[in-house]
Amino acid sequence: MNSLENLLNFLQSLRDVKIRYNLDCVRDAIMVIVPAPSKHYEIEFFADGHLEVQTFGPSSLVTSSTAEELLQLIIHDVNG
After folding, report:
1. SS3 for 40?
2. Which residues have CB under 8 Å from 40's CB, separation 6+?
C-alpha cells in the first residue's frame, strides 16, 4: 500500500467510527488532527510512507506507529 492509500484508508476508518478530524499540510506531510476528550493527536503522513505521531495532553510525546495501531488507540481514547 502506498502512502496516499494509507492516509485515505486511515481517514475512512475514522469516518467509519464517526471520529472527527481536521487536515493540514506541514513539513512535507499531511497532518491529521484528531481531538479526544483529554488530549489530541497530530498524525503526520509522509510521502515515503512513515508516520509521526504527537499527542498533546497530560503527557506529550512523539512516536512512530502504524496507522492500524494508532487507529485502535484513538478509538479507545475517544470512545472510552
Report:
1. strand
2. 33, 34, 55, 56, 57
- Burial label for 47, CB within 10 Å (0-12, 13-18, 19+), is exposed
Which helix or strand (DSSP H or E) is residue 56 part of? strand 51-56
Sheet with 61-63, strands from edge to edge, namely 22-26, 29-35, 40-46, 51-56, 61-63
Chain segment 23-74, per-residue pLDDT in tens = 999 989 999 999 988 889 999 999 999 999 888 887 656 566 788 888 888 8
pTM to 2 decimals?
A: 0.81
What one-letter code names the amino acid at 52?
E
